[in-house]
Design goal:
single chain; about 650 residues; mainly alpha; Serine Threonine Protein Phosphatase 5, Tetratricopeptide repeat; 29 helices; disordered N terminus
């Protein structure tokens, strides 16, 4: 009998896995050429620690000043860079593969998850029904458009990788507790999953509590000694994290976080409302409801707004209700309680942005399973004609959302239209316009953003982009005013002093420019900016040989891993080479730049102009089409920064 059942069941599992993988690949294929966005830039593009030139430099990723508490995720970025530089294809392929692994893992996890009735089915129809339950619950999770932020947004592989180790820990635990593997094998594997998961993202801290939840609701309904140890491990981990994230002084709970417009207590209260918004997005995930950034109204009190208290009461009522049905519907009870447990860390008082949809990725794993578990497993198959259109619609929406991510300009316009945070979306949209040389449009957006100033971080970035756009629009007094305001309030942010020096040079205030160059050359981190200014002044004196020597010398000192300064030196040197009629040398530099950073449209523009001037019309036309597809005017003067 057992042999007969296996011959029926195993091919069905294989079919389910093939279908799941095929749907995921189709849905996420458009994401393969989505450019770096938002936090991708500081964590990956401008982070020298994840730019190893050879395998021996990989350990340097652990010295990253960005996301330093997530070393395994940073290592994955370093490996991507080692094999493909900053070509986004490899980064997106890695993210999709992680999502595929999670999809297959969840399917197998749901297959062995203690059944809703608490009994092990023995009939073929029941087993087939259980497989269908696992398939539909997994498919509706994997193809939900809300997951795109954790998959398509490159840096958020931190979330999907952490989810993999979290779910692997649950899987190993259930194998052990159902006598599929021994405790001797399970324990070291569980510890490994916990540590590796924590090395991706801190949300894995709740894994020991999830094990307790599985044991109590779905297995023995008892708290064993080893479960007490799990609780102790979770408590210690939470306390260690609390030392970093929790305000030590009670009065600080009511004080605003640095660079935020809310306090820890206000964040906590706001989450009671945001959780319900997350759930509404998950169950109605139309693309027009999805944002990259959210700026909800901050709760200032239990009744300000009144939905704050209503959200808290609804959470309490839902948790109590889930607990009360634990005997009759243990899987449903677990799915609901797991959601609140898994989201608890990021929905607490930690110093994070108020809302990001990728925080749904792990907590939502069991939600559909919890709902479908109300049905007897044998009846799930009969529901396929209802579930298949839903899956098709979710897949279509996911494809649509991934297409939206492909064009940065349209993406940020849609963000603002859909109610994303005004300042941040305007700033990112303005940055995309600047990249395309549309400075006047960018200036209007930035000035609008400054009127809605929210945090010091927003103001700092907005002022920088305003000065940048004004400079390349040749509005030098306005540019100087923006950069001067920026340096007075925030110091030498990015290339602020370099731009001030350039403005002085253009205004023939050479003594002022020399003073700026001399001052910044004293500081190792920004010394290259002083070299750039000296080269520009040498060029102004028609001493091109001296200018190129200054840049070549500085370029030999700066490691390519310091991407931003290295690229600035490259651009400036190529420009000087062109003036010296060293055409091949300049062309080679532009090729190096796009090999390092394929989305640098300024380098592509220069290559187009050089190909056209050199008579290679076919190649020039190909580059022209590429630039036009990305909203860039090939003949407009490029800006290199």
């Amino acid at each position: 009998m057992l042999k007969k059942i296996n011959t029926i069941i195993l091919p069905k599992q294989a079919t389910h896995i093939v279908i799941l993988c095929a749907f995921v690949m189709v849905a996420y294929y458009p994401s393969l050429n989505v450019p770096f966005l938002f936090d991708d830039l500081p964590n990956i593009v401008l982070n020298p620690a994840v730019h190893p030139q050879h395998i021996g430099e990989l350990p340097e990723v652990f010295n990253s000043k960005f996301s330093a508490s997530r070393p395994l995720a940073m290592l994955s970025f370093g490996i991507n860079y080692l094999f493909g530089g900053l070509d986004v294809f490899g980064y997106h392929l890695f993210n999709i593969l992680i999502h595929l692994l999670n999809t297959v893992l969840i399917y197998h996890l749901l297959l062995i998850f203690p059944c809703p009735t608490g009994k092990t089915p023995t009939e073929t129809s029941q087993l087939a029904g259980r497989q269908d339950l696992a398939f539909w619950a997994t498919a509706l999770w994997a193809l939900n458009p809300a997951q795109t932020q954790a998959v398509t947004y490159i840096v958020q592989r931190m979330t999907s990788m952490a989810a993999f180790f979290y779910l692997a820990g649950l899987y190993i635990f259930i194998l052990w507790r159902t006598d599929k593997i021994s405790k001797k094998k399970a324990f070291p594997l569980l510890v490994t999953c916990f540590l590796l998961g924590m090395a991706c993202k801190e949300l894995v801290v709740t894994l020991p509590l999830a094990l307790v939840l599985v044991e109590y609701l779905c297995l023995s309904r008892k708290i064993h000694k080893w479960l007490s140890a799990s609780l102790l491990i979770a408590a210690v981990a939470i306390l260690l994290m609390g030392h970093q994230y929790i305000p030590h002084d009670l009065s600080a709970w009511l004080e605003r976080f640095p660079t935020r417009n809310f306090s820890p207590w206000e964040r906590m209260m706001t989450q009671w409302r945001i959780i319900w918004h997350y759930l509404s997005i998950y169950f109605l995930p139309m693309p027009e409801r999805l944002h990259l950034t959210y700026y909800p109204i901050v709760s200032k009190g239990m009744l300000t707004p009144w939905t704050t208290l209503a959200g808290l009461l609804a959470i309490g009522a839902t948790i109590i209700g889930a607990w009360k049905i634990r005997h009759k519907f243990p899987a449903t009870s677990f799915g609901i309680l797991f959601f609140f447990l898994a989201i608890s860390l990021e929905a607490s008082f930690v110093n994070l942005e108020l809302a990001f949809i990728h925080r749904l990725y792990l907590p939502s794993v069991f939600l559909i399973f919890a709902l479908l578990s109300f049905l007897p497993p044998a009846k799930i198959t009969k529901s396929a004609f209802l579930l298949l259109p839903v899956l098709a619609l979710l897949t279509f929406w996911t494809i649509n959302r991934n297409v939206e991510w492909q064009q940065p300009q349209n993406f940020w316009q849609q963000e603002e239209q859909r109610g994303g945070g005004a300042v941040r979306t305007q700033n990112n949209q303005a940055a995309a316009l600047i990249d395309s040389g549309r400075f006047a449009e960018a200036i209007i957006l930035i000035e609008k953003g400054l009127q809605d100033q929210e945090t010091s971080e927003d103001i700092r970035v907005l002022l920088y982009n305003l000065g940048f756009a004004q400079f390349y629009a040749n509005n030098l007094p306005a540019a100087l005013e923006a950069f001067t305001s920026l340096t007075k309030e925030f110091g030498g942010y990015k290339n602020s002093y370099l731009f001030i020096g350039k403005i002085f040079i253009r205004q023939n205030k050479i003594s002022e420019a020399r003073r700026i160059a001399k001052e910044i050359t004293k500081h190792e981190e920004v010394a290259y900016q002083g070299a750039l200014l000296k080269a520009i002044m040498a060029e102004k004196e028609n001493n091109l040989d001296e200018a190129s020597k200054i840049l070549e010398r500085e370029k030999s000192i700066i490691t390519p891993a310091r991407l931003e300064p290295f690229m600035q030196l490259q651009f400036e040197l190529a420009r000087i080479y062109l003036k010296q009629e060293k055409i091949k040398e300049a062309y080679d530099i532009y090729l190096e730049i796009i090999d390092e950073f394929p989305d640098n449209y300024a380098a592509w523009q220069m290559i187009y102009l050089m190909l056209e001037a050199g008579g290679d019309k076919e190649a020039a036309q190909t580059v022209k089409k590429f630039l036009a597809a990305n909203g860039v005017n090939p003949k407009k003067t490029p800006n290199p920064e």
